[in-house]
Specification:
Helix content: 25-40%
Strand content: 25-35%
Number of helices: 11
Bound molecules: adenosine-5'-diphosphate, aspartic acid, magnesium ion
Structural class: alpha/beta
CATH architecture of the domain at 3-174: 3-Layer(aba) Sandwich
Shape: globular
Strand order of the largest sheet: 3-6-2-1-9-11-12-10
CATH superfamily of the domain at 3-174: Acetylglutamate kinase-like
Largest sheet: 8 strands, mixed
Length: 404
């Protein structure tokens, strides 16, 4: 019998009634003759609540203890779902990530999966039981509990589908699939039937938090077709898969908004060889990832350099940049946390002209100021003021003909 992996996100298991609803769906799939491995997220906002709780007992909780704490959220759901299955006469057993042998590196809060044991799961499945696995977590070689980064249960599901050579990997959410934009921001967003790995990876990395980007990387690497669908309906979802001919020929597949970055500027730094190396060397040394960079035209031997970093790293980045500024004799540092990055994504861009001008034109007509621009083969991103982000996304969605 083939194995199917299901994953249920936080909204789908937010309360006891929803957990019973999920149990009923799983029972139906089981009755249809599938061996099932079910990955669950923490209930509702549990993960955020746990982080708040940590902050109430410590100003600077360590990443190891945060992982220890956050991993309990998923463990609760796994146990409850297993009980709900027992209640309707379905054999099931729940496990933590560590118990099923999800081995990760030791990078707490953003650990990478190194290997997964399959023996225990296979054994339970052979007994006819449903295996419920707590998502988002693993264990390192020193037996420390680790977590896989926010949204990491998606990655647990895809990684399990890969090692178990599952026939299908179904990720159940509170939306009916991947849309051309976040339907909460763009009311005209349309469900996409199929999207290829590269476009999905780009959308996920650019802020479409509907799938964790690492889950998409796994799916691409192991050629796993992932279906994203709703746990509240039976509507068909979106297939994330290799490029296929019947994919609609679109220039732009989707629009994304990312509020997770912040901008820093070092002002009037002497323009001489090595400034970029010094600034970005300091960031790299402190494990700060830099995304967009702009260096202004030099005036009378001085220039401004602006760049964006993840908001989590913002305070650290400001501190480091101020240090660099005083060392290099720059005028100072300014920073802005209230920015957002809006992007358009599509492989069709490779063979179409005028995408950038359509984008800039749509933003101009919406009176939205562009602060930074970056492009790659299949995306164009603009940094705008955070308050303009939603209207920018809607304007771009319309300008590229994506509205319903
Ligand atoms: P989970 O329940 O698995 O944790 P998430 O909350 O992480 O699910 O992701 C689902 C949410 O992602 C949706 O409610 C939606 O608002 C948001 N989202 C952002 N971009 C998109 C998109 N392009 N398509 C669908 N949903 C999106
Ligand atoms: N509970 C974790 C989070 O909120 C992991 C997940 O839901 O995928 O990020
Ligand atoms: Mg999620």
């Amino acid at each position: 019998m083939g194995i199917t992996v299901h994953k249920y996100g936080g909204t789908s298991v937010a309360d006891p009634e929803r957990i019973r609803n999920v149990a009923a769906r799983i029972a139906r799939a089981k009755a249809a003759g599938q061996d099932l491995v079910v990955v669950v997220s923490a209930m509702g906002d549990t993960t955020d609540d746990l982080i708040d709780l940590a902050q109430k007992v410590s100003r600077n909780p360590s990443d190891r203890e945060l992982d220890m704490l956050m991993s309990t959220g998923e463990q609760i759901t796994a146990a409850l779902l297993s009980m709900a299955l027992h209640d309707i006469g379905v054999g099931a057993v729940s496990f933590t990530g560590a118990q099923v042998g999800i081995i990760t590196d030791s990078a707490h809060r953003k650990a990478k999966i190194l290997e997964i044991g399959t023996e225990k799961i296979a054994q339970e499945l052979s007994q006819g039981r449903i295996v419920v696995v707590a998502g988002f977590q693993g264990i390192d070689s020193e037996d420390n509990i680790t977590t896989l980064g926010r949204g990491g249960s998606d990655t647990t599901a895809v990684a399990l589908a890969a090692v178990l050579k599952a026939d299908a990997c179904k990720i159940y959410k509170d939306v009916e699939g991947i849309y051309t934009a976040d339907p909460r921001i763009v009311p005209g967003a349309r469900k996409i039937d199929r999207i290829n790995y590269d476009e999905m990876l780009e959308m996920a990395s650019l802020g479409a938090q509907v799938l964790q980007s690492r889950a998409v990387e796994f799916a691409k690497k192991y050629g796993i077709t992932v279906e994203v669908l709703s746990s509240f309906s039976d509507a068909p979802g979106t297939l994330v898969c290799e490029e296929v001919n019947e994919m609609e020929d679109m220039v732009i597949r989707g629009v994304t908004v990312d509020r997770g970055e912040a901008k820093l500027t070092i002002q009037r730094v002497p323009d001489r060889p090595g400034i970029a190396a010094t600034i970005f060397g300091a960031m790299a040394e402190n494990n700060i990832n830099v995304d967009m960079i702009i260096q202004n035209v030099s005036e009378d031997g001085y220039t401004d350099v602006s760049f964006t970093v993840q908001r989590d790293d913002f305070k650290k980045a400001v501190r480091e940049l101020e240090e660099v500024a005083s060392r290099m004799g720059a005028k100072g540092v300014t920073s802005d946390e209230k920015i957002a990055k809006v992007s358009v994504v599509g492989v069709g861009m490779k063979s179409h002209k005028g995408v950038a001008s359509t984008m800039f034109d749509a933003l101009a007509r919406g009176k939205i100021n562009i602060e930074m621009i970056s492009t790659s083969e299949i995306k164009i991103s603009c940094v705008v003021d955070e308050s303009d982000a939603d209207s920018a996304a809607r304007a771009l969605h319309t300008a590229f003909g994506l509205d319903k």
